[in-house]
Amino acid sequence: MYKLKQEQFLPITLDEAWNFFATPANLNKVTPSGLVFQITSDVPDKMYEGLIITYKIKPMLNISVNWCTEITHIKEKDFFVDEQRKGPYSIWHHEHHFKAINGGVLMTDLLYYDIGTGVFGWLAGKLFVHKKVNNIFKYRYQVLEQYFKKSDHKSLA
Fold first, then answer.
1. CA-CA distances (angstroms) from residue 103 to 9, 12, 68, 97?
2. CATH 3.30.530.20 holds for 2-149
3. Per-domain residue ranges of the chain
4. ∠ CA 144-5-116, rounded to 5°
5. How far is CA 47 from CA 43, 50, 102, 107, in A?
6. How far apart are CA 28 and CA 37, in angstroms?
């Protein structure tokens, strides 16, 4: 199993951070366009425990993959967890943590994932999966840096 940890300071209030990240439709806004990410289920304005979200994504070679995640845990304005129920990973457990600190919010992503056992999983990881996952989170970091430095972030939300 692999672990990715990313921390980011956002110069906004805890309410603003929570409102943005608790809105499932905003996931499109922080995902690289090259993944051709599309939510295929109806999503509410705000997430809730047990929410199932389905997607189509094209992670490589323009091949479409169906993905299904569930919001499994929520502690409002503190954290939420999404877990893959069906998709390209054998395990996908993504924790989103929020902590008010002086001048803003510290957001921490903890991702635990596995792409399967055996030679194929190991080879896929080495060749492209780990790099792709890291690049998605780097992209997200950059988008959020730019977005939340603007004086009016209503345009992205």
1. 9, 7, 36, 17
2. yes
3. 2-149
4. 115
5. 8, 9, 27, 18
6. 7
Tens of pLDDT along 54-113?
Answer: 999 887 777 888 999 999 999 999 999 999 999 888 899 999 999 999 999 999 999 998
Location of structure tokens 């845990």:
73
Alpha carbon 130 to its chain centroid, in Å, reads: 15
Q: What is the C-alpha separation between 52 and 69, in angstroms, rounded?
A: 6
User: How many residues in total does the chain contain?
Assistant: 157
Q: Which two tokens stand for residue 136?
A: 């998605």
For residue 65, how many other CB atoms are within 10 A of its CB?
Answer: 13
Is residue 81 a contact partner of residue 94, using CB atoms and an 8 Å limit?
Answer: yes
pTM, two decimal places: 0.87
Cα separation, 100 vs 25, whole angstroms: 24
SS3 for the chain is CEEEEEEEEECCCHHHHHHHHCCHHHHHHHCCHHHCCEECCCCCCCCCCCCEEEEEEEEECCEEEEEEEEEEEEECCCEEEEEEEECCCCEEEEEEEEEEECCEEEEEEEEEEECCCHHHHHHHHHHHHHHHHHHHHHHHHHHHHHHHHCCCCCCCC
CA angle 97, 10, 13 (to 5 degrees): 80
